[in-house]
Amino acid sequence: MSPATWPRDNPLEERLLHVDPRLGRLRDGRIADLPTLLLPGDLLVVNDGATLPASLRGATEGGAPVEVRLIGELAEGRYSALLFGAGDWHTRTEDRPAPPALGPGDVVRFGDDLLAAVERVSAASPRLVEIAFRERGAPLWSALYRRGRPIQYAYVAAPLEIWHTQTRYASRPLCAELPSAGRPLVWSLLLDLIRRGVRVASLTHAAGISSTGDPALDALLPLPERFDIPEETVSAVREAKAAGRRVIAVGTTVTRALEGCAAQHGGELRAGPGVTDLVLHHGFRPRVVDGLLTGVHDPTESHFRLLEAFAPAELLHRANAHAEQAGYLCHEFGDSYLVLS
User: Fold this and answer.
1) Do residue 171 and residue 205 come from a single domain?
2) What pLDDT shows up at residue 23?
3) Claim to verify: residue 177 and residue 203 sit in the same structural domain
4) Domain limits at 142?
5) 209 and 316, same domain (yes or no)
6) What pTM did the predictor assign?
7) Shared-domain flag, residues 308 and 185
8) What pLDDT was estimated at residue 69?
9) C-alpha distance from residue 229 to each of 182, 264, 328 (Å)
10) Record's Pfam families (predicted)?
11) How far apart are CA 166 and CA 177, in angstroms?
12) 164 and 18: one domain?
């Protein structure tokens, strides 16, 4: 399937494939049709995490080039990160050279105003590390936004600016990459949903990276990720469930936050921050989420396998074959599926 190589001008005209697991039916539409596919009282939950400029190009003390891609914040000034060698996003991740060997105490400089030291190297791969920045607070955030760029991949046509990688309702900058399922939800569409009686709630989930270029590391994705669920969202979910209405997650990040939280508390959703290592799969039975709006992805990707928690593999493969034949576009700027009975 062909990737979308750049954000499109009118998200409402992007394609939407409704995948109905109960009826085994596929129906073509547009994002603008979403209000007609949801019912009054349904609850749509979005991820309001903003995307960081998480790609930092620097050099070791010996001058070797290294790209550091921030994965997630561990504590103030400390991040899990993925290392790449020379080159940049123009080269496919799987073709990038290995980074220089780094161990605890080694330093990477990103100019004269930003420095990070390696604190820990993962047993899973020497490319997966934990780093601590010298800077803290406002100086760190200022330097990150001066030096960093959005993470992007070789199929994208040109360098991305930070505003290309934000949803309309983005707030706290916690995401390594764009929580792309919400990208086409423009304000006019959200207001139309609300006018029709669909409720909209939010949570914050620190969306991680989608690809490392290393099959062994990719098999570990998604890594544990932070989330924060407001009390208002917990109440909205409870009210929807009590009324027999559907809860629709906008993306797998929202799904992981809601289902991961419920799994940690005996099936009960609780407000507050947390970390989830939940991996959705075909044997997983959702307790909170009834369906999801998600981007179109290739069936070889881990993201596609997560959808098997909501629809049979046979139907998903049929949907993918239909989407490919019909010219749907994939990846973060691509078209969408609504998996909902």
Assistant:
1) yes
2) 97
3) yes
4) 55-147
5) yes
6) 0.95
7) yes
8) 98
9) 17, 14, 33
10) Queuosine_synth (PF02547)
11) 9
12) yes
Helices and strands in the chain, H and E counts: 8, 17
| DSSP 8-class letter at 94 | G
183-233 residue pLDDT tens = 999 999 999 999 999 999 999 999 999 999 898 898 888 899 999 999 999
Report the range of poorest mean pLDDT among 9-18, 62-71, 248-257, 303-312.
303-312
For the segment 77-91, what is each residue's pLDDT rounded down to a tens digit?
Answer: 999 999 999 999 999
Number of Cβ within a 10 Å radius of residue 20 = 17
CATH label of the domain that carries residue 113: 2.40.10.240
Domain boundary, last residue among 119, 147, 175: 147
Claim to verify: residue 117 and residue 241 sit in the same structural domain:
no
- Angle made by CA atoms 111, 116, 121, in degrees to the nearest 5: 140
Q: Give how many domains the chain has, as a whole number.
A: 2
* Res. 282: pLDDT tops 90: no
Six-digit token pair at 315? 């139907």
CA 156/CA 311 separation, integer angstroms: 30
**225, amino acid identity:** E
Dist CA 341 CA 337 (whole Å): 12
User: 63 and 188: one domain?
Assistant: no
**68-77: pLDDT as tens digits:** 999 999 999 9
CATH classification at residue 224? 3.40.1780.10
Does residue 153 fall inside a structural domain?
Answer: no
Strand ranges (DSSP E) for the chain? 15-20, 25-30, 43-47, 50-51, 55-60, 65-75, 78-84, 107-109, 115-121, 128-133, 173-175, 199-205, 225-229, 247-250, 272-276, 291-295, 336-339
